[in-house]
Amino acid sequence: MSIMEDWRKSAKGQARIKRARQFLLERARQFLLECTEEGDGFSVSYITLKHHYYSWCQSIGLPREECGFGEIYHVLNERALLRYEPSTKGFGGKTTVIGVRMKHPVGFPRYYNKGDRKSITNKVKEAVYAKLRSNGNMCALCGRPILTDDKVHIDHIIPVRQGGMDDPSNLQVVHDICNLTKG
Ligand SMILES: [Zn+2]
Question: What number of other Cβ atoms are within 10 A of residue 101's Cβ?
Fold first, then answer.
């Protein structure tokens, strides 16, 4: 048995591990308290929440390797807020956090900004904005309204690298901060 394993099993080691875990759980709860709000009808995609969490961790000066997401999952799961919908394609699927939405802004918007492609024509953009108005000006990623002063991105529903087209049916308007690594 290694020294490390001995230590883990000792009373002192167990207490230390418990404190570290408690600390991470507190941080997860702090993030949810500061950066999200609760209400009937709210929802946010799990991946969006996760990216906001990483951004928030960076904004409070934590190195990336200390931004483990397990505790957020644990807290949400414990409160039964996670819903998994399998994909019709038979793989992938999508997990949604029910009854919660993001406050804006969270963390650093630039963390999400991977650079906008300029290939979308004005005519297509107009069609995408018409679609946004018809769905009540809601951001497709966080479920919050897009307000006049919000910075927005046009997001590909099926990423370009997976063959997604610059077609209005494959495009949606989202907050810049919600625009994730979808390509
Ligand atoms: Zn949003």
Answer: 20
Prediction pTM value: 0.54
**Domain assignments of the chain as residue spans, ordered by start:** 3-102, 114-181
Beta strands in 93-136 (DSSP E): 94-102
**For residue 17, how far is its CA from the centre of ligand 1 (angstroms)?**
36
Q: Find the 46 Cα to ligand 1 centroid distance in Å.
A: 13
Interval 111-149: pLDDT, tens: 333 444 456 888 888 899 999 999 899 988 888 888 877
C-alpha of residue 19 to centroid of ligand 1, in Å: 35
> Ligand 1 centre and the CA of 23: distance in Å?
29
* Length of the chain, in residues: 183
Residue pointed to by tokens 């957020």: 72
Q: Ligand 1 centre from 120 Cα, in Å?
A: 20
CATH for the 3-102 domain, from 1.10.560.10, 3.30.870.10, 2.40.30.30, 1.10.10.10:
1.10.10.10
